[in-house]
Amino acid sequence: MAPHHRPRTARAKYGEELRLRRTTAGLTQEALSEQIVCSPTLISHFEAGRRLPNPDDAQRIDRALATDGFFARWLEDLDTKFVDHFAAVAELEQQAIEIRQFAPALVPGLLQTESYARALFSAYRPNHQPAELDRDVVIRTERAQILDGPLKPVVWTLLDEAVLRREVGGPQVMAEQLEKIADMAASGRLRLHVLPFGAGAYALQEGLLTLMSFQDSAPVAYVEGFLSGNLLDDPSLVSASQTAYALALSDAMSRRESLAVVRAAAEDHTHGQH
């Protein structure tokens, strides 16, 4: 049986190689940071895979470690289109065999339509430019390709009823978004449950949660807030997250009831009755 470890992302491999080359060169993190002109903490983040160096830092690393452009070239191959706190999560999504997601206020990114995503990006940017919106919408919607990829992960989606009622982008956008979710659930591509307002307080009410399971690695959890996110791999924290998900799921509607509620909400938006 394969060892129970956290799945390794490209960032993690980059960081592990940096740590190996640094120790081989006989340098501490502090000594390397002095040559790169950054803090030792930043070197620690690089080696842990939490951050990637910028191109200038990568070139300075190569000079300090005499690695002949190795880290600068490798950096070019790493996907940096996601914000730092989400980049590792986007990589792990592609390895997951099961994804369980909970959303308290908005449709999860994996399920968003282009119009819904565009409305969200427009809402929190004071001076949004069409080209920037186009880029970000493409980045977000391209993530959904994993749902039809080789692994085709099992996807559970638990939504607070507020997700269905808050009108994002106008009635037609909402109707289209909810019909997409309902169609995925009806086809068996998605296991859908809704937490109704009548459930009152529930275990996951404080924020967004994603649980991911893998073929040969330990599960992880990801919690997200405003402009921040935290990828959890500590077994006790992952277990607590799984328990909270199970508790919240026990307060949710059945799959049949949930599908009916989502279809009805889509119809309400279409006729302005939300």
From TrEMBL:
PROSITE patterns: HTH_CROC1 (PS50943)
InterPro entries the UniProt entry points to: Cro/C1-type_HTH, DUF5753, Lambda_DNA-bd_dom_sf
Gene3D superfamilies, A to Z: lambda repressor-like DNA-binding domains (1.10.260.40)
Annotated HTH cro/C1-type domain residues: 18-70
Top-level taxon of the source organism: Bacteria
Protein name (Swiss-Prot/TrEMBL): Scr1 family TA system antitoxin-like transcriptional regulator
Native organism: Streptomyces mutomycini
